[in-house]
Amino acid sequence: MKDQVASFLLAVQFLTRLPIPGWLAYTEARMAGSAAYYPLVGVLVGALCSAVFWGASLLFPPLVSIILAIAAGLLLTGAFHEDGLADTFDGIGGGHTRESALEIMRDSRLGTYGTLALVAALGLKAAILTDLPSHLLLYAFPAAHGLSRLSSVITIATSRYVRTEGTGKPVSQGISLRGLLIAGITAAAILLTWIYLLPAAPMLLGLAGLTIGHVAMRAFFEFKLNGYTGDTLGAVQQASEIGFYLGLLAWL
Question: For residue 196, what are the domain limits?
């Protein structure tokens, strides 16, 4: 149990800017096990976005409230996944070979492809969420953030890490069956909570959109890289999150 708590806290530290207790002892095994808690950390990030949206909506119009909620998520995570999305597009768009793509993705500078991907992703989120009912948004944020991080976990479980070092190195050996079970239980809790409180149809379409986003993004980078990196995990998360929102919008 102590190792599981430590793995959860390491997942919080890895995916967000939140501080963790100083007594926590880092081990490679605990860090490798942290991937099991990515969806749960996503739920926490999404819950904060919902809280900011709810509070802002008491004073401001929907679009402003949504932008503030998105900004809160960016602040909490340090734009960790968005940075991965930008680097992925820079590398795949600008690299003619696998090696050159990986080298471009390592460069901290933002290029044309990455900039366009970021603008498109943030613009799409704001545009989609503005058209969703407020009561649905309060549940959409935690569900989208949690399930889209499960999408990244699935990539870890079904693909291979292509670098010798980098942000994805701690989980480069894949994820254990117990880790997949923990991540799956979190996802199941998200689904059951949604179905208990809201109609099932938007969730089904949201899952369909998330799946399309997951598959499309992996096809985009795996064809050239023949695997994944830490940056592409962020790209998968972003594509899956946007796909989920698009599915909700399609329900309307």
Answer: 2-251
